[in-house]
Inverse folding.
């Protein structure tokens, strides 16, 4: 493919830090560059505690476990998101309660959520900001969670750097999680980060994520090093990937993020008329980061949209479908609450187009004129 959905942007800084990790002789967890990365991303987001882990999926699982999620518990997940959100719930033996999303930003629908809370009394809720667009009902969802004593995991894997009411995403839940796999806002191949402001909770996360053993920096005597309090996970990020992550976060604000925003604005310019719109419409008090640019065909059915997709792929333009609505995945034992089938409509009538930072205005204009042949 000539035009990719997203691709890693590797500069001499990434190469320098990887080389310095190789030369340091330390490739495993808690490497110097990984610690620097953790410090920098924490400072950027203004969330005091964080730990780099091996994937976004691992971060969700660890978040759920550290909040005590287990068999018999119910966890709310939005219908339009990555399968990892539901999969991690299943991994804990808990029951996923899938709630439909609203049409404007593809965040959780508030009315459906109220019904789900009343009916299922969930212990935990996962709030997801989709494709770089902060969820419209963030403030109300935080309030509802407080009122009903529900713990919140805020998943901003697709929206690093985004803001809601002048606060960076990641600050709204008891725990924040962010994937940093290759195609995300910053990417290291496979990786994730888990955040919290609560020291006690962080200590639990850190211990559980490192085999439930005494964590790094511990001043315990040497003979306690291999002690473990029980079930735990080997989830920490190795040093080579932590080195890539350090370079990516150092380049994020000045280089990577402004380019993403510029491309998002160009898509808005060329895909906004009676036939096609940008799928999401961020609310005024939020700042989106345009991780992926999804377009919505207002007048076409799914057969026609699929024809356009294969035509674009033949021209070397990578396209992606929307997320499979989770309530359509038969492999999970879940419950669903939804008054309007928004996720299915988006899945059928939208396409994700190349969103990588090397695109030019001419490229985006070209995508539009190729699509025009079908309208
Ligand atoms: C919203 C969201 N959460 C979690 C994940 C899972 O992260 P990872 O692929 O790093 O396991 C993804 C996708 O990668 C995602 O888009």
């Amino acid at each position: 493919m000539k035009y990719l959905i997203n691709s890693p942007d590797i500069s001499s800084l990434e190469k320098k830090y990887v080389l310095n990790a190789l030369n340091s002789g330390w490739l495993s967890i808690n490497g110097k560059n990984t610690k620097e990365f953790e410090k920098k991303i924490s400072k950027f987001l203004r969330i005091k505690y964080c730990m780099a882990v091996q994937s976004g999926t691992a971060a969700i699982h660890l978040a759920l476990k550290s909040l005590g999620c287990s068999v018999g518990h119910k966890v709310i997940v939005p219908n339009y998101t990555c399968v990892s959100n539901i999969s991690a719930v299943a991994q804990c033996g808990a029951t996923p309660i899938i709630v439909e999303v609203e049409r404007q930003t593809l965040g959780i629908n508030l009315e459906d959520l109220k019904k789900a809370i009343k009916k299922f009394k969930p212990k935990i809720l996962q709030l997801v900001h989709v494709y770089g667009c902060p969820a419209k009902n963030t403030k109300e969802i935080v309030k509802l969670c407080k009122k009903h004593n529900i713990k919140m995991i805020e998943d901003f894997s697709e929206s690093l750097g985004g803001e809601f009411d002048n606060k960076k995403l990641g600050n709204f839940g008891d725990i924040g999680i962010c994937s940093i796999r290759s195609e995300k806002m910053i990417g290291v191949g496979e990786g994730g980060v888990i955040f919290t402001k609560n020291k006690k909770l962080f200590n639990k996360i850190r211990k559980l994520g490192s085999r439930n053993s005494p964590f790094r920096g511990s001043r315990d005597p040497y003979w306690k090093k291999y002690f473990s309090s029980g079930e735990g996970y080997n989830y920490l990020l190795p040093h080579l990937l932590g080195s890539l992550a350090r370079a990516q976060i150092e380049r994020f604000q000045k280089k990577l993020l402004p380019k993403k925003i510029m491309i998002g604005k160009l898509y808005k310019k060329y895909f906004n008329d009676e036939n096609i719109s940008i799928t999401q419409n961020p609310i005024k008090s939020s700042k989106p980061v345009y991780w992926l640019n999804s377009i919505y065909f207002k007048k076409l059915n799914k057969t026609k949209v699929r024809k356009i997709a294969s035509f674009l792929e033949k021209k070397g333009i990578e396209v992606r479908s929307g997320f499979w609505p989770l309530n359509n995945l038969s492999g999970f034992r879940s419950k669903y609450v939804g008054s309007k089938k928004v996720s299915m409509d988006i899945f059928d009538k939208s396409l994700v187009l190349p969103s990588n930072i090397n695109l030019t205005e001419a490229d985006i204009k070209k995508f539009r004129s190729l699509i025009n042949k079908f309208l």
Notes: The chain is about 40% helix and 15% strand. Residues 185 and 309 are 24 Å apart (CA to CA).
